[in-house]
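Practice problem. Given the sequence and the SMILES for adenosine-5'-triphosphate, write out the predicted structure.
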Amino acid sequence: METNDIIDQYKNGGASLRDAIKTLRTNISFSSMDKEIKTIVITSVTPHEGKSTLAVFLGLAMAESLQRTLLVECDLRRPMLQNYLKLRPPYSLLDVMGKRATDDIAIIPTKAKYLDLLSAAVLANPVEILGSVRFQTLIDELKPKYDVIILDTPPLGSFIEPAILASKSDGTIIVLKTGATDVAAAQAVVSQLEKAKARILGVVINGVEASGGDYYYYSYYDDDGEKKRKKRKRLGKRRRLRPGRQKRTEKNVPAASKLV
Ligand SMILES: Nc1ncnc2c1ncn2[C@@H]1O[C@H](COP(=O)(O)OP(=O)(O)OP(=O)(O)O)[C@@H](O)[C@H]1O
Ligand SMILES: [Mg+2]
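Answer key:
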C-alpha cells in the first residue's frame, strides 16, 4: 500500500519545512490577538502555486499545537485534499449542504490527530454553492467544534469564489510560487481581496522545484510587508525564473504584500 501521503511528506520534509510552517502558524496566532482568526482562506494568483499543499501543512502544524483543525475543500474545480491525504470520504460537502449526510458523518478524521477533512467533488456551479447562505450557515455551525477552519480554494486570478469566501472569513493567505506570478498580477489579486474587504494575513512564497524532491522554501510576509521567515532546505540550487518575468527579490515581492 502507498504510504507516502502528504502527512509523511510534511513529517519527512525536514526541520526547515516544519520551522517555516510553524512560523506561519505563530504569525497567524499573533494576528489573532487583535481579532480571533478562526476561518482562513488559502488562495493564489495562478494555478499550481501550492495552495492545497500549504493548506494541509498549515493544518498539520495547527493540529500539532493541539488546535482542533478542519480542512474544508472549497476548490470545487480541482479538489485535491482527499487525494493528497489518501482518504476516500463516503460523503462530501454537497451531501451535507443537501442534508443527505450530517456534518459529523461527512467530516472524517485524517491520520493526524486533531485534523479533520470535509471533502468535495468537482461541481459545475461552485460560485452558487460556496456563495450560498447554506454554505455560510454550515461554516458557522462548524465553528464551535473547531479552533481553526482552513478553506482551500482555487486561484483567485482565474476564479471568483476565493474572494467570496475571503470576504466572509477571518483571514486570507496568498501563496505565490517562485517564478509563477508577476508582481502586477499579484497586486491585482490583492486589490480584488481588498475590494471584497478580506483581511489578508500575509503572503507565503513557495519556492518549489518542479522536479519535486526534498526541496521546500517558504517565506512569509505579514500584512506590513515584513519578511518573517526564509528557509531553504537544499542549498546551491538557483531558483528558476521564467523569461520575461520580473525577478522576485526581497525588495519587490513585499511590494505586493505592502498593499495589503
Ligand atoms: N513546497 C513544496 N514542495 C514540494 N512540492 C510542492 C510544494 N508545494 C507544492 N508542491 C507540489 O506542486 C504541485 C501543486 O501543488 P498544489 O496542488 O498544492 O498546488 P495548488 O495551488 O493547490 O494547485 P491548484 O491550483 O491546481 O489547486 C503538487 O504536485 C505538490 O505536491
Ligand atoms: Mg489546490
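Check your answer against the key. DSSP finds eleven helices and nine strands in the chain.
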